Structure formats: structure tokens, C-alpha cells
């Protein structure tokens, strides 16, 4: 196993070791990779659904930034400010308001203290070997700070594109978002690309007291690509984190979302949908650490799997001893539209407090023939009837996106997927 | 008198010939013959288990029901060779006895998809959601269907009356040639029955036919049929004018069941 990971260390590893401000973080990550490896029991359990042998094709080639890319055109309607990362490097930034500080992580000379204090503070690289790899190897990316009480009216679009061209590459983009007390922002993270590559991305969010962030992620990587993401948040008291992750891309994707709710009355909502076809492997791993009392967490994932797609959902809620009055809800529902699809659901609760309200569950289902007939009896084709019902199924989760414009955009992406991937012949009975 | 009635009609919309059908291998329909002309309203009455529902299944193309013998022509086309959606687009409409709940599908989306399915086949421009709300509103209001109800998930949390009004609204929007009303009166109080019947009556026209399926004569006070058929044991046992419904109400189905057996 460890050889797999060493294999993934890009040859520009030296760069990060040279950056003085990154020094200790880098050294710990290298140690974590070399010491714990995949052999730790907990670690092996967390990665047991992911076929790490499939990573062997990757040569340790550093990604180099290439073309300027643009967001998929349906985002044009959104009046947003944009940041573009290409092959791991920040290549474009719009003009941001004065209350937003931006820092290009390729800059190795000097970093502001808000950055050095925050970077790496929300993740444990011991438990996440790919985040450790990212930490040792990221050659670029972006850190941003939204200052105290600033309310960002325009959403931020962060486009992360990876172009492998003829080579096989590993990109390690790094993103840090710091919200000071009372700051408000919507961030849309879009992952696209073409070719065979690993996009090994780490996004850290440090959310201050009373701050509010909508963080919406769209993963539409090339279907030959690997998407390994760590999305870690540290939430202070009374903050609100509203997250939605929609995945349609990548041959293998593993989207890990974790948070520490480290102050009272935090509202943490992570919802999402994975839409898998052909032989895609789509994995969602979530971990919510209720560290302080009276926090609310809400998690609804809805998956749709067709052809030979595989879904994995591992969700864990930890409620610490003093986190009384915790309210936690976690649900993974999957719609299985062919005999050959596979889903692994592993919901877990670990509760040490005695006055909490927590529930979790997992369901699998298929489309209802009565509903299909009802739609067809009104003249709607079987294919369209199925697409309408699958869309409705997924929209139950999408409707948790607070920002209505963004909700519409995600609905549209999902509905485009339905039009392309839902046919009238898929049937759980194999017709 | 019957002969006179039939002679008045110059075009047969639906022609059912000697239909035998089974559900789960059990024969239910045992030779149904029925001819319905344009502009006519026929009622089918019958006791539980007589085959009324199975007849609607055969007409609308439910997979659960297997036709073993006979033919049906609709507007000159072979109905049995058509898929349920093709039948609907050809002008067949079933107002369901138990309208299905569609969680997450709004009434507006449902109706718009249905209208657009027809437009697509006709090669017409598809209608967008804003435009569509305007199209629906006046018809919806006359049936007491509010904007709020249109935006809700289809039939989810609807009362019996709301579900049936919603069915009639769909009928009004889709303007079918032939409507099957399957126990539309079930679950309705008198006021709701009046609203629904007014809705149905406003859709009566010289080129639209209806088949009203009911247990009770009551509905036929509101929607007056041209002909009434009594269905029992999978066959039409008797056909008459609307006075037949009154006789049934007074004497029950028992006579027909005995003669059939």
C-alpha cells in the first residue's frame, strides 16, 4: 500500500519543502505518508471501498498549468466573481471587493499570518493520505479571507480545471477560505477537465463566529479522471455552513466532507447528489464532529445509479460528551436503475452525550410503475416519465440549496444528466 | 328508440369488439362489444368485480392486464398496438379513480410536460413555464384549483375532491377526443361533485366522447349519459337510455347478475 502513495508523490515535492512558511506543515505531511500509511486500521476501513490499485497508472509527473478555461456557459447567468485554477495553479482572478484578501498559494516567499494560522488546521493528514499528498505537493491554488462582517453580494465561482492532454497527470490544487466573524459569502466550486488525471484537491474552510457560507460543489470531471477531494471545515459558534455537492463526473471519485462544529448553535448542512452511469465509482464520505452543545447538522444525499455504476456512502456523526442538545440528521437514499449497479451505505453514529436527537438511515429503491403509468397516460413518453421522476427524486436534496439562483443551476445540471442518461429501457428487472 | 339513437351518430370514435382480457391469468372480460360515437356520453355501471376497472386498463394500456382476444379501434387506429403515451396523444384520456401521488413533481410541471409532449409530436414550439402558468390559470380557477395547488407536488396531501378536480383540470388542458371517467364520483361530497360535473359538462362537445364508469346513479344526475350499459361477469348485459340507471338504482344489480349466471 505505501508504495502506491509514494508513487503519487509528484517530483516537485521539493518546492513545498523550500517554502519557509509551509515548512512544518509539509514535514508533518511527509511523515504522515511515510509512517501511518494505509495500514492503520481506521484508515484502511475508511478507504476500503476505494480501489487504490487503479491509481497505479499514474506516473509521478507534476501538473503544469495550461490553457485558460471558462466556466460552463450555464453559469453565465450568475453575476459572480471568478477564480480559475488550471492544473493546480491559480491562473485567473477577477477583481474582488476590498474586503476580500486573496493569496496565490504558488507564492513561496511570504504568507500573511491569517493564512499560515489557518492552512492545514482543519484537516488531519494522518487520517487522510491524499490530503497529506496534497500538502506535500501543492504548487498552487488560492487562499482567501473575507473580512469581519463583510457581506459578499456576488457569489464566488472557483473553477478547478485539469487538462491532461496526452500525458497522465496528478494535480494537487489547494484552497483555503477564511471567513472572519460575521462574514457572508456563497462559493461555487466547479471541477472540470479532460484526459486521464488525478485531481487531488483539498479545500479548507475556517468559518468564524456568526459567519455564513453557502458552499456548492459541482464535480463534472472527465470520465477517465480520478477526483479525490477533502473538504474540511472548522465552524465557530452561531455560524451557518450550507453545503451541496453534485457529482456526475470522474471514473472514480471520492468526496470527503468533514467538519468540527466547535461552537454552540452552529448550523451545518451538507447535502448532495451523485449521479452515476457506465462504470463510475462515486464515493461520499462525511464526518461531522459535534464538539459543542446545541448544534444542528443536516445531511441528505440522494444517488441515482444506472448501468454498472457503483455508489459508496460512508457517513459518521460523532457527538462528544459535552455536545448536549445536538440535533443530527443523516440520510442516504439511492435509486438503483439497473440490476448491475451497486451501492454500499455505511451510516454511523457515535454518541457520548445523553441529551441529543440524532437519526440516520439509508434506503435503496427503484422507480414506481404506477407513477410511470400515470405520466404516460398523460402522453409523456416512458423515457421522459422516468427522467421526470428521477429529477423529482434528486430535487428533494437540491432544494436544500439556500441560494435560489444556484439551486436552479444545479437543478439544470442534474436535469441535463437525466436527459442523457435516463432511458426507457433501464429496469431493475433487467428489461 | 335505441336504434334511433345509434343512427343519429355519423362517426364511431371507439369500437370495442369481442374483448377478452385477463389479470394474473384470471379471465375478467369475457367478450365486450361497445361502440361509441363522436359527441356521445356512455355510462358503464356494474357491481364490484364486474370488470369495470379492467376495461379501463385495457383501454389505457396497462401492462398488468393481458388481452387474449378481440380488437379495439380508436379513431380508425388499432388501439391495442399503441403504448399508453401514444394512446394519450391520440386523444384518449383517463380520469383516474385513484390519482397517483407524484412527490417532487409540481402540478405545473406535470401539465406542461403533458402539453409539451403533444406539441413535440405535432412539431409545435414548446411552451415555457411562465407562459404556461398563464395558459393554465383561467381553467384552473374555474375548477377551484389555486396557483398554490398547481405549485404543489401532484396529488400529495390533496383531499379526495382536490384530486378529482385536478384530474378534470388535466382533461381540460389536454382537450382529449375521448375521456374515460373512472369512478370520478367516489370520495366526493355533493359540492365537490357539482364542481367536478360542471367541469366535465363544460367539456362536452360534438366531437368529444366520454365513457363514465360509476357504481351509482347519482353522478349521472349531473353528467347525463346518452346510453347506459350494465356490465356484469365481464360482459355488457344490458344497454338502455339514462332511465336504465334509475331502474338499477331502484332494483340493484342483482337481477343482472342472476340472468348472467
From TrEMBL, chain A:
Name of the molecule in the record: FeS assembly protein SufD
Pfam families: SUFBD_core
Ranges of residues in domain SUF system FeS cluster assembly SufBD core: 169-392
Gene Ontology terms describing biological process: iron-sulfur cluster assembly
Source organism superkingdom: Bacteria
Organism placement in taxonomy: Bacteria, Pseudomonadati, Pseudomonadota, Alphaproteobacteria, Rhodospirillales
Amino acid at each position: 500500500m505505501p508504495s502506491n502513495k509514494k508513487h503519487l508523490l509528484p517530483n516537485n515535492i521539493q518546492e513545498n519543502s523550500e517554502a519557509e512558511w509551509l515548512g512544518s506543515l509539509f514535514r508533518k505531511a511527509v511523515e504522515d505518508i511515510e509512517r501511518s500509511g494505509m495500514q492503520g486500521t481506521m484508515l484502511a476501513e475508511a478507504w476500503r471501498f476505494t480501489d487504490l490499485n487503479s491509481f497505479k497508472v499514474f506516473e509521478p509527473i507534476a501538473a503544469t498549468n495550461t490553457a485558460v478555461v471558462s466556466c460552463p456557459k450555464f453559469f453565465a447567468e450568475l453575476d459572480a466573481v471568478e477564480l480559475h485554477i488550471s492544473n493546480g495553479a491559480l491562473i485567473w482572478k477577477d477583481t474582488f471587493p476590498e474586503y476580500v484578501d486573496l493569496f496565490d498559494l504558488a507564492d513561496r516567499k511570504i504568507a500573511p499570518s491569517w493564512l499560515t494560522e489557518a492552512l492545514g488546521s482543519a484537516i488531519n493528514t494522518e487520517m487522510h493520505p491524499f490530503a497529506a499528498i496534497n500538502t506535500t505537493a501543492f504548487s498552487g491554488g488560492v487562499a482567501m479571507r473575507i473580512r469581519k462582517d463583510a457581506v459578499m453580494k456576488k457569489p464566488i465561482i472557483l473553477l478547478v480545471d485539469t487538462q491532461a492532454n496526452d500525458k497522465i497527470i496528478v494535480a494537487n490544487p489547494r484552497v483555503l477560505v477564511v471567513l472572519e466573524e460575521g462574514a457572508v459569502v456563497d462559493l461555487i466550486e466547479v471541477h472540470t477537465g479532460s484526459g486521464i488525471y488525478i485531481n487531488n484537491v483539498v479545500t479548507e474552510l475556517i468559518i468564524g463566529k456568526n459567519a455564513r457560507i453557502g458552499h456548492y460543489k459541482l464535480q463534472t470531471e472527465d470520465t477517465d479522471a480520478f477526483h479525490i477531494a477533502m473538504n474540511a471545515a472548522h465552524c465557530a459558534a452561531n455560524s451557518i455552513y450550507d453545503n451541496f455537492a453534485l457529482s456526475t463526473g470522474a471514473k472514480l471519485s471520492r468526496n470527503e466532507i468533514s467538519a468540527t462544529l466547535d461552537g454552540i448553535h452552529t448550523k451545518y448542512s451538507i447535502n448532495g447528489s451523485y449521479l452515476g452511469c457506465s462504470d463510475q465509482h462515486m464515493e461520499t464520505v462525511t464526518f461531522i464532529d459535534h464538539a459543542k452543545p446545541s448544534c444542528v447538522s443536516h445531511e441528505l444525499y440522494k444517488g441515482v445509479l444506472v448501468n454498472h455504476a457503483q455508489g459508496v456512502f460512508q457517513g459518521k456523526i460523532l457527538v462528544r460528551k459535552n455536545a448536549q442538545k445536538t440535533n443530527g440528521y443523516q440520510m442516504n437514499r439511492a435509486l438503483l436503475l439497473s440490476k448491475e449497479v451497486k451501492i454500499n451505505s455505511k451510516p454511523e453514529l457515535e454518541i457520548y452525550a445523553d441529551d441529543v436527537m440524532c437519526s440516520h438511515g439509508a434506503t435503496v429503491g427503484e422507480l414506481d410503475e404506477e407513477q410511470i403509468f400515470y405520466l404516460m397516460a398523460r402522453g409523456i413518453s416512458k423515457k421522459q416519465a422516468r427522467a421526470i421522476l428521477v429529477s423529482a427524486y434528486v430535487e428533494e436534496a437540491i432544494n436544500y440549496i439556500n441560494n435560489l439562483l444556484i439551486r436552479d443551476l444545479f437543478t439544470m445540471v442534474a436535469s441535463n444528466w437525466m436527459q442523457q442518461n435516463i432511458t426507457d429501457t433501464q429496469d431493475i428487472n433487467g428489461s | 328508440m335505441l336504434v334511433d339513437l345509434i343512427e343519429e351518430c355519423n362517426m364511431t370514435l371507439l369500437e370495442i369488439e369481442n374483448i377478452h382480457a385477463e389479470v394474473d391469468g384470471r379471465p375478467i372480460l369475457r367478450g365486450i362489444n361497445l361502440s361509441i360515437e363522436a359527441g356521445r356520453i356512455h355510462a358503464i355501471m356494474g357491481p364490484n368485480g364486474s370488470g369495470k376497472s379492467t376495461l379501463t386498463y385495457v383501454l389505457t394500456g396497462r401492462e398488468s392486464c393481458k388481452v387474449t382476444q378481440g380488437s379495439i379501434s380508436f379513431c380508425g387506429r388499432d388501439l391495442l398496438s399503441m403504448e399508453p403515451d401514444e394512446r394519450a396523444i391520440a386523444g384518449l384520456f383517463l380520469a383516474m379513480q385513484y390519482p397517483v401521488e407524484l412527490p417532487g413533481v409540481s402540478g405545473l410541471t406535470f401539465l406542461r410536460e403533458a402539453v409539451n409532449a403533444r406539441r413535440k409530436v405535432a412539431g409545435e414550439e414548446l411552451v415555457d413555464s411562465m407562459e404556461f402558468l398563464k395558459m393554465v390559470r383561467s381553467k384552473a380557477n374555474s375548477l377551484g384549483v389555486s396557483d398554490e395547488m398547481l405549485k404543489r407536488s401532484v396529488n400529495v396531501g390533496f383531499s379526495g375532491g382536490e384530486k378529482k378536480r385536478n384530474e378534470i383540470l388535466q382533461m381540460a388542458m389536454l382537450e382529449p377526443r375521448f375521456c374515460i371517467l373512472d369512478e370520478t364520483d367516489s370520495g366526493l361530497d355533493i359540492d365537490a361533485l357539482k364542481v367536478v360535473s360542471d367541469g366535465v359538462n363544460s367539456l362536452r362537445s360534438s366531437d368529444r366522447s366520454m365513457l363514465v364508469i360509476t357504481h351509482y346513479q347519482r353522478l349521472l344526475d349531473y353528467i347525463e349519459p346518452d346510453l347506459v350499459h350494465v356490465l356484469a361477469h365481464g360482459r355488457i348485459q344490458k344497454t338502455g337510455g339514462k332511465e336504465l340507471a334509475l331502474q338499477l338504482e331502484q332494483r340493484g344489480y342483482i337481477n343482472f347478475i342472476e340472468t348472467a349466471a
